[in-house]
């Protein structure tokens, strides 16, 4: 099959990114590149459209081209991150919207509803949560195909011989309820486990930090270290004891929870959005019903070695730890069925 990946903004412009720097890509772009590579290895002709490229860049199994070059050709399948409006200048009998971001938010619906009416794309969701919330969107059909894992991360899985020190990591957009994590840490975790540390690997503003000053954060062992390249983040996770992700209504998958599990690190969550699907309660972590319960769960995982080992071993066998090659095979079956229908 000839397959085109499109990544546009809500305003209709193509996103620009460095095709050689997967470390610096946003989550949707990074997973798009992983899938394009895996489909290319399966023998498909795959092109990724990217703004700011004057000459086609040949990568392993696929190519990245500027919009003028990429859109001048016909395809069997066109896959757009989030927006059906991206199909307006595309020639392809099968059009798929990959719903990385929630198509059910009001602003997204207003921006893209007419385009979905025009194109009636097939929707590929990342979770049952997103599928259930997308009932009102015009479409020709829909399915769920989850994300895969890079081969290097799969190969690095191993059981630890010693429980790590009491370090927790938050690594998502700060607006996705970092404030709840700060509250749980201040009110529950720090009083009970004063030696424990919380590392925040995102860009956080005062409103995300529940109004605490840098001095107040330092006093309760919270350090905001900013965004890290993906490889550095994986190294940090392998040295941590627990990953914390309350979730958010915009969470359609939360890839980092599964990447943390591949590193042997359990997740404490509140199960908001798709997080209830990523964390197996009391197996690969804990799903709390309140901020206080989240703090209590963090305190337990940070101090109870037997509990941590139980979660650690289950994390290494998490059912979502699947290679991109296997996910590409799912995509291939789905696309072939659409082409033949």
What does this entry look like structurally?
The protein is elongated, with a radius of gyration of 21 Å. It folds into 2 domains: 2-148 and 323-340, 3-Layer(aba) Sandwich (Rossmann fold); 152-315, Glycogen Phosphorylase B (Rossmann fold, 3-Layer(aba) Sandwich), CATH 3.40.50. The protein is of the alpha/beta class. It contains 13 helices and 14 strands. It has helices spanning 27-41, 67-70, 106-119, 128-133, 151-155, 178-192, 214-219, 230-239, 255-262, 275-278, 291-303, 305-315, 324-340, and strands at 2-6, 45-49, 57-59, 62-65, 77-81, 94-98, 122-125, 141-144, 167-170, 197-200, 222-224, 242-244, 267-269, 285-287. α1 crosses α13 (324-340) and α6 (178-192) crosses α11. The strands form 2 sheets. It has an 8-stranded mixed β-sheet.
How would the blueprint of this fold be written?
Elements lengths: L1 E5 L20 H15 L3 E5 L7 E3 L2 E4 L1 H4 L6 E5 L12 E5 L7 H14 L2 E4 L2 H6 L7 E4 L6 H5 L11 E4 L7 H15 L4 E4 L13 H6 L2 E3 L5 H10 L2 E3 L10 H8 L4 E3 L5 H4 L6 E3 L3 H13 L1 H11 L8 H17 L1
Parallel strand pairs: 1-2, 1-5, 2-4, 5-6, 6-7, 7-8, 9-10, 9-12, 10-11, 12-13, 13-14
Antiparallel strand pairs: 3-4
């Amino acid at each position: 099959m000839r397959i085109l990946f499109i990544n546009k903004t809500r305003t209709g412009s193509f996103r620009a990114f460095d095709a050689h720097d997967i470390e610096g890509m946003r989550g949707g772009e990074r997973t798009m590149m992983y899938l394009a590579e895996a489909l290319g290895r399966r023998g498909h002709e795959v092109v990724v459209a990217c703004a700011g490229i004057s000459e086609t860049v040949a990568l392993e199994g696929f190519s990245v081209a500027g919009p003028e070059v990429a859109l001048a050709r016909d395809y069997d399948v066109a896959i757009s991150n989030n927006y059906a409006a991206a199909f307006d200048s595309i020639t392809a009998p099968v059009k798929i919207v990959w719903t990385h971001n929630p198509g059910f938010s009001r602003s997204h619906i207003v921006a893209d509803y007419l385009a979905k009416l025009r194109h009636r794309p097939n929707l590929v969701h990342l979770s049952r949560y997103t599928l259930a919330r997308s009932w009102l969107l015009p479409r020709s059909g829909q399915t769920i195909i989850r994300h895969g894992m890079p081969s290097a991360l799969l190969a690095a899985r191993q059981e630890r011989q010693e429980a790590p020190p009491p370090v927790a990591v938050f690594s998502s957009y700060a607006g996705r309820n970092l404030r709840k994590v700060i509250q749980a840490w201040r009110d529950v975790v720090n009083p009970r486990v004063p030696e424990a540390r919380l590392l925040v690997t995102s860009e956080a503003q005062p409103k995300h930090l529940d109004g605490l000053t840098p001095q107040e954060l330092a006093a309760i062992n919270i350090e905001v270290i900013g965004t890290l390249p993906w490889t550095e983040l994986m190294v940090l996770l392998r040295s941590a004891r627990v990953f914390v992700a309350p979730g958010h209504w915009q969470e359609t998958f939360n890839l980092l929870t599964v990447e943390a599990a591949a590193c042997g690190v359990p997740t404490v969550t509140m199960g908001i959005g798709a997080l209830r699907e990523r964390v197996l309660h009391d197996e690969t972590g804990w799903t709390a019903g309140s901020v206080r319960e989240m703090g209590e769960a963090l305190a337990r995982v940070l101090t109870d070695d037997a509990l941590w080992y139980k979660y650690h071993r289950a994390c290494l066998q998490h059912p979502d730890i699947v290679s991109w090659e296997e996910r590409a095979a799912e995509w291939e079956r789905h696309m072939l069925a659409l082409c033949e229908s």
